Amino acid sequence: MPKKPVTSTDELTRMLIQVEAAAAGILEQQMLHRLRQQTYVGGKRVDIQKLPRLPKSAATTVHRVKVSLYGAKPPVWRRLEIPSMMTLDLVHIVVQAAFRWDGYHLHAFETACGEFGAPDDGDDWSERKDEATAALAQVAIAEGAKVVYTYDFGDDWRHDIVVEKIVPAEPGIAYPRCIGGRREGPPEDCGGIWAFNELQAGRDDTFDTDEVTEHLADLPKILTPAS
User: 209-217 vs 88-98: helix axis angle to the nearest 10?
Assistant: First the structure.
């Protein structure tokens, strides 16, 4: 009767290593697949949503949003009314005007539908989509939705855009407009939020809502008359 082959300890060790490597490879692929299905919005990882179609109602509604400068103490914020159908490349211009930025630096939007930015600002590693292809109503579809706008990746000015209400546009009103806010925004290249907090400590609040609306009115191509 022939003897059964005997597996040596070395062979068993090699087999065990191969099984562990295969299992680790499968687990790694599963993790990578899961990560590709998620994105960051303000430092929080969320499941990526497919960009929905622009709702028909967006042509006659405005998004009332509160835009807060993250980490600012005392708080710095603007309450803006923006046409729901406005694309993100124009929302970028609105936020720039509202906070008196000069547009010297790169920017990006973090949304539940992925990251968006200007095609000319692309780099070799990010997967940003063209911001001109998505409207505010598509990436912030309901009240409470959040979009993060980051300007100047060096100083890292993060603006949290939260939808407070979606309301019908008022007849005879030009949008976008500013209806509230607190404190002046940071000067360009001042060193980031910590340096700005020290800079504004003890200063009076000189923010003027009408002044911001005037700056928005300097951008006639993004004004949308209510219907």
Answer: 140
C-beta separation of 112 from 39 below 8 A: yes
| pLDDT, tens digit, 9 for 90 and up, residues 52-90 | 999 999 999 999 999 999 999 999 999 999 999 999 999
Q: Are 187 and 93 in contact (CB under 8 A)?
A: no
Residue 227 in contact with residue 60, Cβ under 8 Å? yes
pTM of model > 0.85: no
pLDDT tens for each residue of 122-150: 665 567 899 999 999 999 999 999 999 99
State whether the Cα torsion 166-167-169-170 is positive or negative: negative
- What is the number of structural domains in the chain? 1
> Alpha-carbon distance 227 to 216, whole Å?
19
Range of the domain at 220: 59-225
The confidence score (pLDDT) of residue 150 equals 97
CATH at residue 182: 3.10.290.30
Helices (H), the chain: 9-36, 88-98, 136-139, 193-200, 209-217
Q: What is the DSSP string of 31-52?
A: HHHHHHTEEEETTEEEE--PPP
> What is the rounded end-to-end Cα distance, in angstroms, of the chain?
95
Half-sphere exposure of 70 (CA within 13 A, CB side): 17
In a domain, 159, yes or no: yes
Identify the DSSP state of 92: H
pLDDT at residue 9 greater than cutoff 90: no
